[in-house]
Each structure stands twice: as C-alpha cells, then as structure tokens.
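Wait, mind explaining this?

_____
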Amino acid sequence: MSVSALSLARLLGGISGFLQLASLLGLLLLLFKAVQFLLHRQWLLKALQQFPSPPSHWFFGHKDQELKHTLTWVGEFPSACPQWLWGSKVRILVYDPDYLKVILGRSDPKAPSTYRCLAPWIGYGLLLLNGQKWFQHRRMLTPAFHYDILKPYVGIMADSVRVMLDKWEQLIGQDSLLEIFQHVSLMTLDTIMKCAFSYQGNVQLNRNSQSYIKAVGDLNYFIFSRVRNVFHQNDTFYRLTTDGRFFNEACQLAHEHTDKVIRQRKAQLQNEGELEKVRRKRRLDFLDILLFAKMENGSSLSDEDLRAEVDTFMFEGHDTTASGISWIFYALATHPEHQQKCREEVQSLLGDGASITWDHLDQMPYTTMCIKEALRLYPPVPNVSRDLGKPITFPDGRSLPKGIMVTLFIYGLHHNPKVWPNPEVFDPSRFAPGSSRHSHSFLPFSGGSRNCVGKQFAMNELKVAVALTLLRFELLADPTRVPVPMVLLVLKSKNGIHLRLRKLQ
C-alpha cells in the first residue's frame, strides 16, 4: 500500500471515529432531554392533579384552543383549568374572582416564556418589566395620567373622533356597510400621538400611520402564533422561519414609527420657546416625562428604556382602545334599544351643538353602563399571565407550587355563569349605580398594583367616541357578517367588525 493510500485510510478512519463519537454524544443528549422532558411532565401532572381538565395529547396538548371551545371549560371546571399547549408546556386558566383576587394581590412576575416574544417589538417597558425597575417606571409615569393632564385631552379626543366621522360620511351613502376596526385604530392612534406624544400632524390621513397600524396587526398575529408553536420557541430557529422574517420586518416598521415620534419631539424641545412652555407646565405629558426623566440614582433614562416605554404605550394606547371602541359599537348595533337610550342621553347634553368637555363625561350614566357591559362581553385584553414566584393556596384549599404559569383568563371571568348570570346577554343594568358585585368580577383593565396605568385615559376616550358617534350615526348590525372574537394580544375579530352606518338627519 502506498504512503498516500495509507494516509487516506487513516484520515477516513479518524473521520469515522469522530462521527461515531458525535453520534454517541448526540444520542446521549437526546436521551437526557427525553428524560428531562418526562420528569418535568410528571412533576407538572402531580402539581396539577387537583385541577381536572379535558383530555389532551401528550405532545400536542389541547388541540382545539379556539376561544369558543375554551369557554366551555369555564362552566365545566370550577374556578380554574389547566390548558396544555404542548408536551410539558401548560398554563392554568383562572376565571374565578376569588382566585383572581389572591393572584392580583401578589407580586408574581409576568410569565417570561410568553411575554419574551413581545420584547423584540416593545422592549422592556411597563408591560414587561418586573421588580424594582417596574416600580420606578410606574411611579415615574403615573403623573402623566393625573386628571390635570387628562382634562384638556378631551378636546383632542373629540377632534380625532370628528375626523373619523367626517371620513365615514364621505365613504358611505345613506345606508352603507363599513369595516370599522381599521378606521377606529387610526383614530385612537391619532389621539394617543397627539395627547401623549405631542405629535403635530394629520395621523388619520397619513399613509405611514396606516403602515404602522398594519404592522401592529401583523405583530399581534405572529406573537400569538409563536407562543403556541413548540417549534418556534428557539430564537435562532425562529429568525430563520418565514414567520420570523415577517415578524422582524414588522418590528422594524413599528420602530421606525416610534423613533420618528421621539426624534420630532426632541427637535421641538430644541426650540427655546417650546422648552420654556414645557417648563412652565405643572405636569408633563407622557413623552416629555420620559425625555426629562431622572431616575432615583440621578442618571437619565437610557435610550433603550425610553424607546421601550414609547413602543409599549404607542401600542397599548391605541390598539386596546380601538378594540374596546369597535366592540362597543358592535354591541350597541346589535341592541338598538340600548343604543337609542344612550343617544337620547347624549343629545340631552350635547344636542344643541355644545362641545363635549371633561364635565360631560360624568353626566352619561346610562351610556357608561352600556360601555361597561360591552367591556364585560368583549374585554380588550382577554388574558394576562404570571409565573408563580412562590407557592399559592386558593380560598377553596387547592394549591399550586412555585414555577407554574397562571393565566388570568379575563374573557372567561366575564363569561363565567357562576359570576354573571346569563353571561351572553347584554344587560347594562348589571352596572347600574348601587348594584353589587365581587371586587374582582369585572377586570377590563386588569387589577391590583399592575392594573392599566392609563385606564382613566381609555375610559374617557371610549365615552367621547361613543357620544359623538351616536350623535352623528345610527349603528346597525349586518346579520350576514357576525364578528368572531379571537384572542390575540388584544381581542380582535377573525372576520373584522362590519356595521351599517345610517347618517342621522
């Protein structure tokens, strides 16, 4: 045998040995992962044995996770029910007010396995932060929603609503069909940008704003889809998938929008007159608080933290409110008798052409009852999740260990027949003054220390939008296009929300 042939044989033998060793190590790693999976699943099954659930596949979990199907569990399984997403991934759906009161009274962190999927988009702002940093940011931003700040916003909200209604008048005939969600989203984006971010411009007629709205819709879908897909949990692998690439593109579009808003406001504050006007203010708007912020240790808010809060509030300040308004309009359209009572109440306040003001918002009790009942039926944020930082025992004696993910199933709570008799019936009298209910039976803005910091802002906007719309249009349902509620980051409809709008004379 020649020297070269001998060298080649040795090389091939070396490669073969290496491949055999690599195969063995791979097999051992696979075996280790399989044992780890089985042990963790057994631990979960034992931890959850007090909480029965429907049969599930050992790997694919509960295959039918549609909202309509999941809602049947609320009546079947008391207080809480495990939902297996896949293999050893499970969350406990909680829809009992006593259970929710216990959880919301604690300081368990947001579930990282779920919320980390949002981080590339909205960063670590108030929604995703935990611990001391969350507390610092919450305390810093709370003054942005003081009533002294909110009062003048009512006029800005009204102007944004009127732009939307004017567009509707141009788009429809005497009695025409319209998909309203996109229009409402542009209006709420217009409102939040002008109120919280001191934006100057016509957001509702700007094509870039429409691109941002579409990006937010896409991000809702991609995040929801990723959370439920076992094969998309690894960040590196996800970035290589088609969904991952589209997700990154949508993130870039969203970031371009918010970066532009920050740049423009910084440029405005270079003007000495604008800077002096801001300094004279008793309280600052949201973005100005961030730009002027000094944390407790004396250092400025980092650019990363600033953009995270802007991304968070740009999304939450328009998308959740758009969901709320759109579903309220649908609820009123399907219950014309309640719609007419609201209209008469608003006409008694504003029928002579008076502009809506802060004082009017507390003079619409029946309209407020209808808004709350619509928020019960269609909560804009249908669930939130926590990871238990320590064991928990519920009022009925059942308990869960540390490390379990619990999902506050707000949609399930609001449709729980043990909490709300005839839960599918639209009945505004549930919220009549003096009516009694459990403190944690109605949570459209969550509850506890981590409740929505902008809930009063949102309620004001809902009232302004409903009042001005009912003065201008009669809302009619289209029985051929009944919306199908779908749980994403916010409550959307699979097939849009289509209404007939009839201009009032």
Remarks:
- The chain is about 55% helix and 10% strand.
- The domain at 48-503 is CATH 1.10.630.10 (Cytochrome p450).
